[in-house]
TrEMBL record:
Residues 153-266 form the FAD/NAD(P)-binding domain. Keywords: Transferase. The lineage of its organism: Bacteria, Pseudomonadati, Pseudomonadota, Alphaproteobacteria, Parvularculales. Pfam families: BLH_phosphatase, Pyr_redox_2. InterPro entries: BLH_phosphatase-like, FAD/NAD-bd_sf, FAD/NAD-binding_dom, Prot-tyrosine_phosphatase-like, Sulphide_quinone_reductase. This is TIGR01244 family sulfur transferase. CDD domains: PTP-bact. Residues 2-110 form the Beta-lactamase hydrolase-like protein phosphatase-like domain. Transmembrane segments: none annotated. It comes from the Bacteria. One of its GO terms (molecular function) is transferase activity.
Length: 577
C-alpha cells in the first residue's frame, strides 16, 4: 500500500485490495472510506468485497462514491460526517487518492487556512493548488464551484514514454515553453525490458525509475489523474474537479491491460503457473517458471490486435524454450502458441526466420484461438477456437501459462469526445493532429494510428508531435509527418535477435545496413542493441529529447491564407478550418 499521512485521524492512498485491508488493520487503522465508485475500472475490487474484508478484520467501512472530476458539496458533507462518526484513524482511498484528499481539503475549508490545507496536501504528494479558489470561496461561506481554468502553452496527458519524450522534444526546440504533464503515478517503467526480466537477463529494478527523475526540468508535474476533456473550451478536467486550460493539448494516455476480460485470470495471476511479462511484478515469475520446470506443458497466448509490442508474447516463448534447451529439458516440454490471429507475425518478411525457431523448439502453433478463461487451481485454460464461420471452445491443461491480456483504450478516454468508437484518440495518421480539434495531438499506444504499438514508434512520433505543436502555437499548419515506423526486436534465443523494422503497410525499413544488422536474420549485433544500447537510448536519449535517427520529416510549408486558418480552431464548430 502507498499510504499518505494527512492528519492524525486520516491517511489516504490509491486503490487498495481486500488483502490490503488486513494490512491496514495491522497498522492500527480502525476505519476505511471507499471513495471510488464500483465499476470504474476492470482492475478494482468491488466495494462489497472491500467491506466484507473490513468486517473480517474488525474495522468499520463507509462507501462514499465520488465521480472522478465531480467532487460535489454533497460528497464533501458525507465525507465530513463519516470522519466524525467513524473511529479513528481512518484510511480513505480512490483510484489515486486525489478524490479522498480533495474531500478532506474541502471539508477543512473555514477551519484551517487555505495555505495550510494546500501544504498538507502537497506534503502527502497531492498538488491541489487548482482547488484554491474553491477553498477560498468555501472558507467565506460561498459556493463558487470549480476553480477557474489556468492557461498553459501545452498540457500533456500521460507521463509514459510518449508524454515524457514529447515534453523533452518540445523543450529542445523551445526552452521555457509552458508545459504541464498530468500523471498520477510516481514510477516510470521501461516496459520493453520486461521481456528480458522474464528471460532472466535483466533485474526487475533495472526497468524502473522515479517519475520525478524522468520529467524534464522546467515542466510542471500535476500529480493527479485526468478525469475528462472539454475540448470545445480547451480544458482538461482533473480528478479533483479542477480544470487546466491549454493552448495545445497532447494526449498520450497509453492503453489499458484488460485482465478481467479473461474469466478467472485475475484470481490466479502470479501463482498456479500463470504469469505474464506484461506486468512489472510478474515478469520475475516468468523466469522462475522457465528456470525451474523440468517437463510439462507450457502455453503462450496472444489476444486479438491491437496490443503493445505484438512480438512480446513470442519473445517470452522463445526465451523460455532457449532456457529449457540449455538445461536439456526441452524434449520433455510441450510448448503451444495460441494466437487469436491467423499469422505468426504481421510483417511476412520476418516470418521465415521465426519459423526456423518454431521448428527448432518444437512449438505447436495454434492460430485463431483466443484465451477466454483460466482455472488456475485445476490448471486448465479455455480457448475460443474460430474454425471458418463456426466457433467452439476447447479446454487445455497446462503446467505453465504465459498470458498476454486483451488491450483497450482507458475507460476515461472511451467516454471522452476525443476518441473513436474503439476508444483510441482519433488522429491523422501522418501529422498526428486530432481529426476534429486542431489544437489537440495524440501519440503512443492510445492513439488510432494503424502502426505497431511499440516504444520505437513513440521515438519517431514524439518529434513529429513536438514540431507540429509549435507550428500550431505559431499559427501555422502542421507539416511534420510520421511514416508509421515501428520496431520489434524479437529475442529468439539468449544472444540473438531478429530486428523487425517496418512502416505503415508492413514495408520493411531497416535502420542499419545489412552488413551491420540484417534484420531478417537472427544476429548477435541485434541482441547487443536490445540488451546494451536500447535501455540507454530510451532513458538518456529519447526521454531527454535527443532524436538520434528519429528527426521528423518536415514537408515544405506553403504560407497561404488557408494554411493559416488550418492551424486555428473554432471550438464551437469542433472543426479544423
Amino acid at each position: 500500500m502507498d499510504l499518505r499521512f494527512v492528519a492524525p485521524d486520516l491517511s489516504v492512498s490509491p486503490q487498495i485490495t481486500p488483502s490490503d485491508v488486513g494490512v491496514a488493520a495491522s497498522q492500527g487503522f480502525k476505519s476505511i472510506i471507499i471513495n471510488r465508485p464500483d465499476g470504474e475500472g476492470n482492475d478494482q475490487p468491488t466495494s462489497a468485497q472491500l467491506m466484507e474484508a473490513a468486517k473480517r478484520h474488525g474495522i468499520e467501512a463507509r462507501f462514499i462514491p465520488v465521480e472522478s472530476g465531480k467532487v460535489t458539496d454533497a460528497d464533501v458533507a458525507a465525507f465530513k460526517a463519516a470522519m466524525l462518526e467513524l473511529p479513528a484513524p481512518v484510511l480513505a482511498f480512490c483510484r489515486t487518492g486525489t478524490r479522498s484528499v480533495t474531500l478532506w481539503a474541502l471539508s477543512q475549508a473555514g477551519h484551517l487556512s487555505v495555505d495550510a490545507i494546500l501544504k498538507t496536501a502537497s506534503d502527502a504528494g497531492y498538488d491541489l493548488e487548482g482547488l484554491r479558489p474553491r477553498l477560498e470561496a468555501k472558507a467565506k461561506g460561498a459556493d463558487e464551484g470549480l476553480a477557474p481554468a489556468k492557461a498553459r502553452d501545452v498540457v500533456i496527458i500521460g507521463g509514459g514514454a510518449a508524454g515524457i519524450a514529447t515534453a523533452s522534444s518540445l523543450l529542445k526546440r523551445r526552452p521555457g515553453l509552458g508545459i504541464v504533464i498530468v500523471e498520477p503515478r510516481n514510477h516510470h517503467y521501461y516496459q520493453p525490458g520486461w521481456t528480458l526480466v522474464g528471460g532472466g537477463v535483466f533485474k526487475r529494478e533495472e526497468t524502473e525509475r522515479s517519475m520525478a527523475s524522468v520529467i524534464p526540468k522546467g515542466v510542471e508535474w500535476v500529480r493527479t489523474a485526468c478525469a475528462g476533456f472539454a475540448p470545445e473550451r480547451s480544458e482538461v478536467i482533473l480528478e479533483d474537479g479542477t480544470r487546466l486550460h491549454y493552448k495545445t493539448l497532447v494526449v498520450a494516455p497509453g492503453l489499458k491491460l484488460d485482465w478481467d476480460a479473461i474469466d478467472g485470470l485475475q484470481e490466479t495471476l502470479g501463482r498456479n503457473g500463470v504469469t505474464s511479462n506484461y506486468k512489472f511484478d510478474l515478469a520475475p515469475y516468468t523466469w522462475e517458471l522457465a528456470s525451474t520446470m523440468r517437463g510439462g506443458r507450457a502455453l503462450f497466448t496472444q489476444p486479438p490486435m491491437p496490443i503493445k509490442c505484438a512480438g512480446a508474447p513470442q519473445k517470452a516463448m522463445y526465451l523460455s524454450c532457449d532456457e529449457w534447451k540449455r538445461r536439456g529439458v526441452l524434449s520433455d516440454m510441450e510448448v503451444y502458441f495460441h494466437n487469436a490471429g491467423g499469422v505468426l507475425f504481421g510483417v511476412a518478411d520476418y516470418v521465415p526466420a521465426l519459423m526456423k525457431y518454431v521448428d527448432q523448439y518444437g512449438i505447436n502453433l495454434k492460430f485463431n484461438e483466443n484465451l477466454i478463461a483460466v482455472d488456475g487451481a485445476s490448471r486448465k485454460a479455455t480457448f475460443r477456437v474460430a474454425d471458418g464461420d463456426e466457433t467452439r471452445e476447447e479446454v487445455r491443461d497446462f503446467d505453465m501459462l504465459h498470458v498476454c491480456p486483451p488491450q483497450t483504450g482507458h475507460d476515461f478516454m472511451k467516454k471522452s469526445p476525443l476518441t473513436n468508437e474503439a476508444g483510441w484518440v482519433k488522429v491523422d495518421d501522418q501529422t498526428l493532429q486530432h481529426k476534429d480539434y486542431g489544437n489537440v495531438f495524440g501519440l503512443g499506444d492510445g492513439c488510432s494510428t494503424p502502426n505497431a504499438k511499440t516504444a520505437a514508434a513513440v521515438r519517431k512520433q514524439a518529434p513529429v508531435v513536438a514540431h507540429n505543436v509549435l507550428e500550431v502555437l505559431d499559427g501555422r499548419a502542421p507539416n511534420a509527418v510520421y511514416d508509421g515506423y515501428g520496431s520489434c526486436p524479437l529475442t529468439v534465443e539468449r544472444g540473438k535477435v531478429v530486428l523487425a523494422e517496418f512502416l505503415y503497410g508492413g514495408k520493411v525499413a531497416p535502420s542499419f545496413p545489412a552488413w551491420m544488422i540484417d534484420g531478417k536474420k537472427p544476429t548477435r549485433a541485434a541482441w547487443l542493441l536490445k540488451e546494451k544500447l536500447l535501455p540507454a537510448i530510451y532513458f538518456d536519449g529519447m526521454l531527454k529529447g535527443h532524436e538520434w535517427l528519429a528527426g521528423p520529416k518536415v514537408l515544405p510549408h506553403r504560407p497561404t491564407a488557408h494554411d493559416a486558418q488550418a492551424a486555428c480552431v473554432d471550438p464551437s464548430s469542433k472543426k479544423v478550418a
